UniProtKB/TrEMBL annotation:
Organism encoding this protein: Trapa natans
GO cellular component: cytoplasm
InterPro entries the record matches: DNA_methylase_N6_adenine_CS, Efm5/EEF1AKMT1, Mlase_EEF1AKMT1/ZCCHC4, SAM-dependent_MTases_sf
Any one GO BP annotation for this protein: methylation
Keyword check for Transferase: yes
Keywords associated with the record: Cytoplasm, Methyltransferase, Transferase
Protein name per Swiss-Prot or TrEMBL: Protein-lysine N-methyltransferase SAY86_024622
Enzyme Commission code(s) on record: 2.1.1.-
Amino acid sequence: MEDDEDPPMLSSHTLAALHEFLSEQNRSLAAEAGDEPEDEVVLVSEDWRLSQFWYHRETAETVANEVLKLCSGSVARIACIACPTLYAYLKKISPNVAAQLLEYDHRFNQYGKEFTYYDYNQPEQVPQELKHAFDIVVADPPYLSKECLEKVAQTISFLASPERCSLLLLTGEVQRDRAAELLGLRPCVFRPQHSSKLGNEFRLFTNYDPGSRLGGWEPEK
């Protein structure tokens, strides 16, 4: 007898949980089989509900090495706003570097005291001891909206040392004018890439001239 009923459908929450479980299982199996490259950092699976997209390894290494170059010859404190891939590579390359991850996803509380819960909708609701405490701030706003960048810019101003602070912003090309207006940033020639293919072109903006690194600043039109 033919069954006229529709097949059962999984809820979006259940599908997301299943996707996360399978991704983590695949990562574990790959690691056990020795398929993971030695220089690859394994993070928790991306959560599309949180607009999470991890950097490609080469991008993470390039930006991490740039940040460490900025630290050269000094004891600098680094704030990583919503960019856990960068934080993980920084710690892999230089385990003793002073880096703080500000992130919405509680799964990253595995980093202990170097994890600070952060919601960009509450840009200054971070511990007071972090105010003006950082010599380098790297931010990757989760969304490409004007509102999101404005609020993350508030957080950057809160965290940045008023004396001297190097700023790096990874976000979409569509934010070029806002990045310049809000934070005085210019785009570098270097193009960030993600492990997942994204439709929007991403850029790296800085408030300092990187010279020959990162391809330098893109020439002004």
